[in-house]
Design brief:
The complex is a heterodimer of chains A (114) and B (114). Chain A is an all-beta fold and 114 residues long. Chain A contains no helices and eleven strands. In chain A, the strands form two sheets. In chain A, strands 2, 4, 5, 6, 9, 10 and 11 form a seven-stranded mixed β-sheet that branches. In chain A, strands 1-3-8-7 form a four-stranded antiparallel β-sheet, with no helix packed on it. Chain A is globular, with a radius of gyration of 13 Å. In chain B, strands 2, 4, 5, 9, 12 and 13 form a six-stranded mixed β-sheet that branches. A five-stranded antiparallel β-sheet of chain B has the order 1-3-8-7-6, with no helix packed on it. The termini of chain B are far apart. At the A-B interface, β5 and β9 of A face β4, β5 and β11 of B.
Chain lengths: 114, 114
């Protein structure tokens, strides 16, 4: 099993450009989520999904869109990138959202917005 | 919402010493407390977790203690080794709308000097 796979690992954008960060998991996990990690700020939840067709906002959703058309994939879209979105983004999944358990993280996508 | 405070932000120890990282949480309804280790350039990985019906849990050189009354929990690493150098995150979570969504602390950078 590959676990949680994120692409791309690195990306540089100009202000106003759009892009999609891809996340795929092969563990048949119901729950998937996106976090951003900034120095001294820990991991902050952007959006999450409890199953195909269901998404919800986390702590810092502004400027980001998500969709969940399949169990495996959970892409994160930046419609008009801003310098404040420069960060490292992590996708994570878990098998059973109802009992609390291990989050499996991808290796991260480092985004720089100029 | 839940608020998790983590201290210290940086911890420097000599190889063989013990290391202690402390976290406090605000919502008494939180009942699941995981700890994650993040090595450089990688995603966080679960190292140990504890639920609110348990006061202490140990796994080889790492242990976690939980004080529900005081709303704080700690990670203890004994006989530290250079490979323990990493960023450690605590988290607190509770069931909300049928899902456990963790709130993370801001992280502790542990440096173990050989």
């Amino acid at each position: 099993n590959a676990g949680v796979t994120q692409t791309p690992k690195f990306q540089v954008l100009k202000t106003g450009q759009s892009m999609t960060l891809q996340c795929a998991q092969d563990m048949n996990h119901e729950y998937m989520s996106w976090y951003r990690q900034d120095p001294g700020m820990g991991l902050r939840l952007i959006h999450y999904s409890v199953g195909a067709g269901i998404t919800d906002q986390g702590e810092v959703p502004n400027g980001y869109n998500v969709s969940r058309s399949t169990t495996e994939d959970f892409p994160l879209r930046l419609l008009s990138a801003a310098p404040s979105q420069t960060s490292v983004y992590f996708c994570a999944s878990t098998r059973d959202r109802a009992v609390g358990g291990e989050l499996f993280f991808g290796e991260g996508s480092r985004l720089t917005v100029l | 919402g839940e608020n998790v405070e983590q201290h210290p932000s940086t911890l420097s120890v000599q190889e063989g010493d013990s290391a202690v990282i402390k976290c406090t949480y605000s919502d008494s309804a939180s009942n699941y407390f995981p700890w994650y280790k993040q090595e450089l350039g990688k995603g966080p990985q679960l190292i140990i977790d504890i639920r609110s019906n348990v006061g202490e849990k140990k796994d080889q050189r790492i242990a976690v203690t939980l004080n529900k009354t005081a709303k704080h929990f700690s990670l203890h690493i004994t006989e530290t080794q250079p490979e323990d150098s990493a960023v450690y995150f605590c988290a607190a979570s509770m069931a909300s709308g049928g899902s456990y969504i963790p709130t993370f602390g801001r992280g502790t950078s542990l440096i173990v000097h050989p």
